[in-house]
């Protein structure tokens, strides 16, 4: 992971140190050999202090713009609430700083377009965060598919299950974009990565487990079917009531075989008692995708350092969002919806 | 399976001794203690001779009506092509014979209604064949659900994969009703059994692996989403290109947990060579559901012998067909379709 | 399983209708096309009546000799207590009847020699019962090994676990031969089948879970290591406190890979609740080896009908017993013991 | 893993930067928040340069004594060849430095005693390396056992398989102590940890896959049975020809259930092609125990920083060695050997 020739280091400023941001802080400062975490920004002063203290980060601020414009910062990693992605990206574009931006790009296509224009106009390096592509399981599936292990992939299936209800504040569609966008954006990105562009979507959804989510206008279960422009098929099912654990399963049905990515057992221990064999489950996304998050950030840093193109572009962010927005509309209207492109 | 008190035997006439009919012949004559296979009918004379010879069946004919009216026959098991179900059932109704009828009831709702009327008018015992309900896995799931193991089931998922293409003749929608009906009827019956009635369906499908199926107007992959009258959700995905094996998976997502039924390993042997662990797969439905087929026929016989009501009625056959017909229409039109009831 | 050309039937007399004998009665009368169960003997009159009634068996007796000498009986299946094997076999030898004898052949080498001499002197067909060889998993392993899938097998490992304590009467070494013989005889037969003859054994054992077994001189756990005449290695571990289920696992470590036979999940249902994925277990040997028992009896019948040699001979019974006796002695003495041959 | 209160850092000198030492260098410098890698020693100058360069280590030397006596070094991590453990530990004891020492302590009981005396006389902190105890699977098993999940553990089983032959130089018993010691030391430590002290051992072994190992006096397969002082039983089997992958399985059979630790699938990808389901395997110990190695070093550092007792002592190292030495003698002599204590 940390090759011995990786001498050059990228000086990174991290904006947002909530749940995921803290993992990024740890990765950028201790796990990834080619990065140096030189600045941290968050609206929460105490969070900034905590992270700068723990990881010896020289600069901390509650103002993202100060971080972006700081001369020691070569690249910016954005893990802030989605609604701020546009402003932060535009500031980075203005400063000519490289950007890594967590998914989703935004929750509206207008904002997404604005971000895209800012990136294109400024010419900054911009890499979208879709960590599943860096998971060893998904990466291996991509490689095997490319090698022809299952012939042509003709059906895409993807399941995402959260083990518990998000907070009602988090789930509010005005900030989250709604469950289909919030959870499904990963599956839609995988759909495109493995299969190509989506032409039309249909969707059903409902409030089946947590009525309090309905009170803020969200749903807790959805099933979205996809027709790709190639005529191939896909289906994504999303649930907030995974209950047993965090379960992510993706299948590619091909003309010569099938690839299935996923696992639900966390610890290599079987407990076998009278008539029952049991094991534990994957708690949540940090456990499931720890390796992927680290690999993704390292990839970002290496790309910037070596002048490579980003493997996941702002367009990938826009396009996944288009599917999510179309699917959300399809769920609302009960109609088939075309995905613009 | 064969209780020691099961003295009374049901004299059964079997109509249709194709692939599945032969298994029924074996079960009725050797596996099930409470049945006696006393007559066999099939349009294929040599098949009749073969079965009557192998299992010492006293009466064989190429004319189903002769079998139905034969005085030694108390009950009729119908495993003929779907298009004949109406005529055979009507003849059985006229003779007052008990009927077990393989799925699907028919491929048209008109025929299904005619069968239903014949059954109701005559008052004969009529049991629909949906063997999955008798599979130990599905039966255990039903029991666990009833015990509250996962709270309320709110999402139904079901996958059916055939390991190879059917013959083009078999697949022809004029006789098979099309893939959504031919394969999905089992999943639709499970959907109703576990979750209740279906209100609306949406469906997508395509010819993705076997162009020759398109030539006769069929498809080889489909995804059908279901909204139950309760507002709960379901999704069924069907494929002819299972390739790796016969894979049937059903999941019930509940408010407190999930039940998952299915397996794909046939033989308890792992072959572990350099960097690879491998095992075989379930070949086809006869292997996967051998236990279920036998249990279903025995249940039929016991019900007739003891004057019990059929657990799967002609209405169940009609209602599963309604979902299948609606889903087929939804796939053709791209629109959401209501399921009549 | 029951080919359509199997016209000839073998008339079988079954001696012993305890737990396993009843399964044999069902198999011989209903599951196996080429056998006819024509006589049943057991010291328990009511058991005889029950079986003859259930399966329409024409002749029932409490005297095995009457069954053996009955003119309608072509072949005898022996499922009686081990201590009777000699007498029954000698009577069958005197009558020239073919014999299938359940394992173990006997619990003493003297008795085993007597049986062997009776068989050889009379020239009767004699097939030893070791049903694991007919299990699809073990059979597939044998075939794969023969095909070179793992190179040369150099280490044999076998685990047998009973899910609960046997009755103290059953366990009494004076009738059972002790746990190493009672349970291990299957593993020792597999060891020979896969690897060849055993030269020396070492063993440890103890009363660790059920003190009441110690009171009659038996143990409840044992580990036996084997050195084959080829210099290759083996280990067998046996336990009465499987508790979670009936677990049989055999591994062959080869120079190019490993074969592993075994499974512990009975029903294809996963129950997934908060933090836990669970499934049931295999209850006991009748469930685990149902297919193997039927296949073995059918094989016996086909061999007799077609004049084929038995695949498992009286010598196989003697040789497995020699290992068991040596291992029992090794456990008692703590010394390495040579296996006579 | 890296708690925010972990302000104090331990200045560590690492002696030995071979295969495992490099992982330790990475962990000490980047993965573990409470350690600082301040010095590196190895007889290989270029390895020293490489590591000091990659991880910005201020001091590098080819002379371990220089490292040990260096004022910036608070604690020493020893990953050198086993034959040097005594000299390095004695030097550390003389300098009063805390020591973490990789297994095995030594290959001779005399050397082990010398190390033990040096540690005890000097009073230095000394922690033995047995990383399996820090693996989440083994740690969870220990906890479950303590909670009574399986009643009393009465049988211990442990399997260790290497995926390929070691170099002949490495395997030479004069430096490795022979395969039973080299591989089995982990299993013997687990045996003690879970079950208590071992009273006697028996062992068989052979050169079955790699004749070249026999040429230097080593073996490639062994089976060791253990009787604990409590009378409970154990068995350890070791193989160099794992071939398919690195497979470590430990089972504890209890009076109320069984715990099984182990897994062999590395990547969460199933490849399903015609009749076959396949997945990859765990390559080797660095992959299987990456988490454990890191956790173990962090535990060491925290213990030193907070003045806690080592969870694995020099006595644990001595005692595991005693079992290994006895087992090796048992394999040579064919006799049961008592384990001194």
Strand content of chain A: 25-35%
Q: Largest protein interface? A: A-B, 39 and 39 residues
> Which structural class is indicated by helix and strand composition of chain A?
alpha/beta
State the separation between the terminal residues of chain A, measured CA to CA.
37 Å
Q: Oligomer, anyone?
A: homotetramer
Spatial order of the strands forming the largest sheet of chain A: 12-11-7-10-9-8-15
Helix content of chain A: 25-40%
- Detail the poorly predicted runs of chain A: 1-6
Q: Indicate the mean pLDDT of chain A.
A: 96
How many runs of DSSP E, i.e. beta strands of chain A?
A: 15
Radius of gyration of chain A: 20 Å
Shape of chain A: globular
Biggest beta sheet summary of chain A: 7 strands, mixed
What series of H and E elements makes up the topology of chain A?
EHEHEHEHEHEHEHHHEHEEEEEEHHHE
- Work out the helix count of chain A: 13
Describe the structure.
Four copies of one chain form a homotetramer. Chain A has 341 residues and is an alpha/beta fold. Chain A is 40% helix and 25% strand. The first copy, chain A, is built from 13 helices and 15 strands. The first copy, chain A, has a seven-stranded mixed β-sheet with strand order 12-11-7-10-9-8-15. The first copy, chain A, is globular and about 55 Å long. The interface between A and B is large, with 39 and 39 residues. Strand 13 of chain B pairs antiparallel with strand 12 (257-261) of chain C.
